[in-house]
């Protein structure tokens, strides 16, 4: 009997010892050989995982060569909304590289972590690369989906994530809406010239179009990567609406014999912006390096890596013609041409009680 | 093989077999098959997948973090479980049934909600977040937060297991020990602990399994910083989302293996607990 409880007790103390041991094993950030070691945290959205993995190495090499400091960049990825929320709740990102400006606006408005004019801190509205929304379809395009209008066909299933949680999904939604407006009013020129009455009538048509799209959505994933997995791994749906970079990546990862990319004639210019989170960087003493990190995105290496990972570089002149060849010609419209600003689009479409809530009924 | 009803009343044979077939079918499809798939996928290319998956420093960091979190939360909940069940089983006091209900809260709320509770408390926008941040403490999106939610989620396991056992045993033996001159701690170590050891171990093992496998609550407070605040279950998600399906299954199979070991131990301990109760019933007679 005595032996038995001693056994139990011994087992418990083993736990406590292992606590002590693992507790001691905290990784030290002090550098070796006198080289200063710096850590950065980049909080980003889903489809940038692979790009930043490679970019971080490029930046570390660049920083080592210019400043002789070791830098290690930590990554955190998830749906853009969730990530923005986490930064507000105290995830101490030195830099944020999110899917859309609105998410950073919200952080700036509700906390004092970065200034309201954050978007003017880096060139090109703080968007070092851009992307657009394209279609991914099954190999051979069996349902013949070539442009936005084909999404209205009966008997197809469409995969897109939830606009409430995913930045990519909001771009998908707005791209579809813009395409419907352009069809009604005769292109972007027509949208600009339309009278308020004409615009209202076209908006009604666009709303019906979006409604018909969401009726064909069998599952709403919370992020772009989840939607890609639903389409590619789980073989759900006939067409996936997604970022151009995500579509190309899925094509590459699936070996190229399962899916193909279809680029519509008109789509939205999606500019995922970047920013230094000043307060956190100040706290960590990383302001200088955080700024240098984001500036490196605009350098020839940064732009080439972005292009390699299927983001459209903002300085196309830095990229070889072969590299650029994979980006299909597509007429791109800007969000501000139709909605003025992200805040406006967010309020009308995605806030609680907005148009998305009105039209989407879960099955 | 005949199936005997405990009360000696026989249901028609077809009822028996239909029920048995349905049960086995359900278990096979919903439980056994997924577990088998995890191992099949993980071992598809042999052990090579494991070698590749384990070459990633992020995998080791995830394993390390998971062990650390478990090593803190399990002993904490063991001590708490002992204290709580002792208080509830051996003393009479006001609000006892309320206390019992409170202990069950983590079972009743969804783990995601548990995670949010802690974000509301310790997040920068939360009640104590700003103060903690000023003092230089990081709770949410750091290891302490992950430990806190794991403790919360696995809180009831030990207590829930011990309370009925201790209530059944009563405090006669303890009183005898004390009247023979034993001190408080002596009574605990020589009388109480030996009596409850199997139940205790059973609770600890369930607690351990849940602590290692918790996803929902941890996902909310982790911030999933690769190589730093990603536990094993979160690492599996990261791998899967990174188009790295074989590695994801390899890591998942490690977790499944822990689960199966737990199951084996649990079955053994269950048998032990039952045996102990039977002995106790004999003594009481």
Write structural notes for this entry:
The complex is a heterodimer of chains A (363) and B (285). Chain A is of the alpha/beta class and 363 residues long. Chain A has two domains: 37-127 and 272-324, Periplasmic binding protein-like II (D-Maltodextrin-Binding Protein, domain 2); 131-270 and 330-359, 3-Layer(aba) Sandwich (D-Maltodextrin-Binding Protein, domain 2), CATH 3.40.190.10. Chain A has helices at 2-24, 49-67, 80-88, 101-110, 123-126, 167-185, 187-193, 196-215, 224-232, 244-253, 278-284, 287-296, 300-308, 321-325, 335-339, 342-350, 355-359, and strands at residues 37-45, 70-78, 95-97, 129-138, 158-159, 239-243, 259-262, 266-270, 274-276, 312-313, 331-333. The radius of gyration of chain B is 23 Å and the shape is globular. Chain B has two domains: 1-42; 47-284, MetI-like (MetI-like fold, Orthogonal Bundle), CATH 1.10.3720.10. Chain B is built from 14 helices and no strands. Chain A binds chain B through residues 1-2, 4-5, 8-9, 11-12, 15-16, 18-19, 22-23, 25, 41, 43, 46, 49-50, 74-78, 86, 88-92, 110-111, 225-226, 229, 233, 249-250, 253, and chain B through 64, 67-68, 71-72, 74-75, 78, 119, 122-126, 129, 133, 138, 140-141, 189-190, 193-194, 197, 200-201, 204, 223-228, 238, 240-243, 245.
Question: What's the SSE blueprint?
Answer:
The complex is a heterodimer of chains A (363) and B (285).
Chain A: H1 2-24, E1 37-45, H2 49-67, E2 70-78, H3 80-88, E3 95-97, H4 101-110, H5 123-126, E4 129-138, E5 158-159, H6 167-185, H7 187-193, H8 196-215, H9 224-232, E6 239-243, H10 244-253, E7 259-262, E8 266-270, E9 274-276, H11 278-284, H12 287-296, H13 300-308, E10 312-313, H14 321-325, E11 331-333, H15 335-339, H16 342-350, H17 355-359
Parallel strand pairs in A: 1-2, 1-3, 5-6, 8-11
Antiparallel strand pairs in A: 3-9, 4-6, 4-7, 4-8, 4-10
Helix pairs in contact in A: 2-13, 3-4, 6-7, 6-8
Chain B: H1 13-42, H2 48-55, H3 57-90, H4 96-103, H5 105-108, H6 111-122, H7 129-135, H8 143-154, H9 156-169, H10 172-179, H11 184-213, H12 216-222, H13 232-241, H14 245-284
Helix pairs in contact in B: 1-14, 2-14, 3-8, 3-9, 3-11, 3-13, 6-8, 6-12, 8-11, 8-12, 9-11, 10-11, 11-14, 13-14
């Amino acid at each position: 009997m005595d032996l038995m409880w001693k056994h139990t007790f011994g087992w418990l103390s083993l736990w406590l010892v292992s606590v002590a041991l693992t507790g001691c094993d905290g990784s030290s950030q002090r550098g070796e050989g006198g080289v200063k070691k710096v850590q950065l945290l980049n909080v980003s959205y889903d489809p940038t995982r692979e790009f930043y993995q490679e970019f971080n190495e490029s930046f570390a090499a660049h920083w080592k060569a210019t400043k002789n400091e070791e830098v290690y960049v930590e990554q955190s990825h998830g749906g853009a909304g969730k990530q923005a929320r986490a930064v507000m709740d105290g995830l101490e990102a030195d830099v944020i590289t999110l899917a859309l400006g609105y998410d950073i606006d919200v952080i700036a408005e509700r906390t004092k972590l970065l200034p309201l004019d954050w978007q003017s801190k880096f060139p090109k509205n703080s968007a070092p690369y851009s992307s657009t929304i394209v279609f991914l379809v099954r190999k051979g395009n069996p349902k013949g989906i070539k442009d936005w209008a084909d999404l209205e066909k009966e008997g197809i299933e469409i995969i897109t994530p939830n606009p409430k949680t995913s930045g990519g999904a909001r771009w998908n939604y707005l791209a579809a809406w813009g395409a419907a407006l352009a069809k009604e009013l005769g292109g972007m020129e027509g949208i600009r010239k339309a009278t308020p009455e004409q615009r209202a009538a076209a908006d009604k048509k666009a709303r019906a179009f979006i409604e018909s799209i969401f009726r064909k959505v069998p599952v709403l994933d919370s992020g772009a990567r989840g939607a890609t997995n639903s389409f590619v791994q789980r073989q759900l749906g006939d067409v996936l609406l997604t970022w151009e970079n995500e579509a190309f990546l899925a094509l590459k990862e699936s070996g190229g014999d399962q899916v193909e990319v279809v680029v519509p004639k008109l789509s939205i210019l999606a500019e995922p912006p970047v920013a230094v989170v000043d307060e956190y960087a100040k706290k960590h003493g990383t302001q200088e390096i955080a700024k240098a990190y984001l500036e490196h995105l605009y350098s020839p290496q940064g732009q080439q890596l972005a292009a390699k990972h299927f983001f459209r570089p903002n300085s196309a002149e830095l990229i070889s013609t072969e590299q650029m060849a994979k980006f299909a010609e597509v007429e791109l419209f800007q969000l501000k041409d139709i909605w003025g600003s992200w805040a406006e689009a967010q309020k009308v479409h995605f806030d609680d009680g907005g148009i998305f809530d009105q039209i989407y009924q879960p099955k | 093989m005949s199936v005997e009803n405990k009360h000696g009343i026989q249901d028609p044979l077809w009822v028996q077999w239909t029920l048995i077939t349905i049960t086995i079918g359900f278990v096979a499809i919903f439980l056994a098959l997924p577990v088998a798939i995890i191992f099949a996928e993980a071992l598809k290319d042999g052990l090579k997948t494991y070698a590749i998956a384990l070459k990633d420093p992020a995998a080791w960091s995830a394993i390390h973090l998971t062990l650390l979190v478990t090593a803190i939360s399990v002993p904490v909940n063991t001590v708490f479980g002992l204290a709580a069940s002792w208080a509830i089983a051996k003393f009479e006091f006001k609000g006892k049934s309320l206390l019992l209900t409170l202990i069950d809260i983590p079972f009743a709320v969804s783990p995601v909600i548990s995670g949010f509770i802690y974000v509301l408390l310790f997040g920068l926008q939360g009640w104590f977040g700003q103060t903690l941040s000023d003092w230089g403490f990081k709770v949410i999106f750091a290891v302490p937060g992950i430990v806190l939610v794991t403790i919360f989620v696995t809180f009831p396991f030990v207590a829930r297991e011990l309370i009925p056992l201790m209530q059944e045993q009563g405090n006669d033996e303890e009183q005898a020990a004390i009247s023979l001159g034993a001190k408080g701690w002596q009574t605990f170590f020589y009388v109480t602990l030996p009596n409850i050891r199997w139940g205790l171990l059973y609770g600890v093992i369930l607690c351990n399994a849940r602590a290692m496998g918790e996803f929902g609550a941890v996902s909310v407070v982790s911030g999933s910083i690769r190589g730093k605040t990603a536990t094993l279950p979160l690492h599996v998600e990261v791998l899967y989302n990174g188009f790295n399906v074989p590695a994801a299954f390899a890591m998942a199979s490690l977790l499944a293996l822990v689960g199966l070991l737990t199951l084996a131990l649990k079955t053994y301990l269950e048998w032990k607990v039952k045996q102990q109760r039977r002995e106790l019933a004999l003594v009481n007679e």
